[in-house]
Write a structure and sequence with these properties.
The chain has about 350 residues and is mainly beta. The chain has no helices and 31 strands.
């Protein structure tokens, strides 16, 4: 235990001191021997270690060792808060030339990192991020090494699982931490197999190899779930979802048969040809309530509330058969039978006007 003084005030050429007691700790100097553990490289054959227990040093640069070296070194010289030292006793050799370690490659680069964060410059370019064994060939900053096993690194022609995004040519492969450029925009969204067609720095390309991913073509008819007043519907096949833009908002909620009218760049538009559930289609006749005061008809069905726009007006009010002639923004149709005026709409109910005894 030593005694030292701390200056607490200076005035009129005099200093006021306070006596303190503490353990004395001398500065580390050349020829001193200290214990260290290196944590990275700063140059060719020079590793760095923090000087955690030193009173005057921040770092120690040790020659002829690598990362994770643990042992005793002799300080050869000091400069500012840095010491330069040579190893004299080894507890753990750490990483040296010829050491084989596992490294996590950095996708689309010639770099990898050890588990402790040390960077390794590889002998070749690697397209993906994957853990592989690396043999250290030179202690430098960064470390230099050669790949020992490349079996886990995909090659051209191999397939990987990527996540497609409809209309985009970029596919993200999470397993390998890399994005692949497709030859054409994806027709759907979801996971799919992608075949690697080209592997080159900054140019990793592929094509969809999954049979479940197929784009609808112009003229194809697909069954979609529609929602009333919505202008989009989704075609689902396995894990894939393909968004179809409808020419007009859906008239009904349910299932509809849609004809694809345009298909370009992963984008599709379709036209509703008929509704399957509830069922209504062009050319079919349906019983409806008609009125000479309106140009629309209401189908006599509980499952369809949408009116039918009549191409021609009617001269009577009652029940008639209406044939659907067009399905677009509305149902369009024409009256194809005589109007039965015996049944009229009163407060939403059909009333038989030929029997008035109940009134």
């Amino acid at each position: 235990m030593g005694i030292y003084a701390t200056v607490i005030n200076v005035s009129d050429g005099h200093a006021e001191l306070r006596q303190e007691r503490a353990a004395y700790k001398r500065h580390d100097q050349p020829q001193d021997e200290i214990d260290i553990q290196t944590d990275g490289m700063v140059g060719n054959g020079v590793a760095r270690a923090p000087a955690a227990n030193s009173s005057n040093l921040e770092a120690v640069y040790v020659y002829r060792v690598g990362p994770k070296f643990s042992g005793t070194v002799k300080i050869m010289k000091t400069r500012d808060e840095t010491a330069y030292a040579l190893p004299i006793a080894i507890r753990e050799e750490g990483i040296t030339t010829g050491t084989e370690i596992n490294g996590q490659t950095i996708a689309d680069s010639r770099s990898a990192r050890t588990g402790s964060g040390c960077k390794i410059k590889l002998d070749r370019w690697v397209p993906v991020s994957v853990e592989v064994p690396v043999e250290i060939t030179k202690l430098d900053s960064p470390l230099q090494g050669e790949l020992c096993d490349t079996q886990q690194i995909p090659s051209e022609g191999d397939t990987v699982i990527g996540h497609l995004k409809q209309g985009s040519t970029e596919v993200r492969v999470s397993e390998f931490g890399v994005s692949i450029e497709l030859n054409e925009p994806a027709p759907a969204t979801g996971p799919a197999e992608v075949s690697l067609s080209n592997l080159a720095p900054m140019n990793i390309r592929g094509q969809i190899a999954d049979d479940e991913v197929s784009a609808p073509s112009v003229g194809d008819k697909v069954t979609l779930e529609t929602s009333r007043k919505q202008s989009e519907a989704t075609l689902e096949a396995g894990n894939q979802r393909c968004l179809i833009e409808l020419e007009n908002e859906a008239i009904l909620s349910g299932q509809a048969t849609v004809s694809i009218v345009t298909a370009s760049g992963g984008n599709f538009t379709g036209r509703v040809k008929r509704y399957e559930s509830p069922s209504i289609e062009i050319g079919e006749r349906y019983e409806a309530k008609v009125s000479k005061r309106r140009d629309t008809a209401n189908l006599v069905r509980d499952d369809i509330e949408a009116p039918v726009v009549l191409e021609k007006g009617v001269s009577d009010t009652g029940i008639a058969y209406v044939q659907i002639t067009e399905i677009s923004d509305y149902f369009y149709g024409e009256v194809v039978s005589s109007v039965e005026t015996a049944s009229l709409d009163t407060d939403g109910h059909n009333v038989d006007m030929t029997n008035l005894s109940k009134f």
